[in-house]
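INTERNAL AUDIT FORM
Audit reference: QA-55
Scope: verify that the stored structure record matches its stored sequence.
Auditor: D.O.
Record contents follow.
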Amino acid sequence: MQSVQFRNEASSQDKAQRTKALLMDAAIAVFAKRGVEGTSVNEITNHANVANGTFYYHYKDKKEFVDALGHAVATMFVNRVDESMEELTDGAERVATATQQFIYLAAADAAWGWMIVHAVTDLGEFSASISRGIRKDVALGIQQGYFKMCPTDIAFGILLSVVGAGLKARLENPAMEGIEMLTSECVVRMLGLAPERARALVSRTAARIAKSNPEIAVVRGKRRRAARSINKR
């Protein structure tokens, strides 16, 4: 698996930024296979085809690099999800929408998707960076009286693990229908919504996502047709 997203974004920047982007894309590819904790600096530089000295010229150690990568990935995903929810002020709807959108976005690139699956399992600094987006929406839902969860690091770690499990299921079953919705429903029920209310909320937000994202509606249609084809066999 290869990733070029950071290099594409840095293509017009100076050499230092392009080198950092090269290292980040290489790390994503290796993290996708071995996980964040199981990957060494040497494996990252080998994949990027640069010397270890190049890595240490830009970063003090692996921790500093992972923090920078986690912040960059989190910023990219949080910004994309937030852009799709600009008009939403309801905390419960934001969480239900963000959960589905996050899985759609992360699964669109297998290298990124598997890297994130490993990151949320490791529950380190990288995972903490990724969880910042959902924290503010959960806090809003608590303030509005929708959620009853105690907002501890452990609780957010559990929520993020559920999202990671949903993402893993999507990557392993690209044609299966409803994974994003099932994951979203699980998350809002864990936060305190009653089953019927959670199901209605997720259905409503899924319809809004499909309406505002034609490409997602196309993907869902393909999954439904694939599912019907399998059921007829």
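Auditor finding: record pair retrieved intact. The first helix runs from residue 5 to 10.
Action required: none
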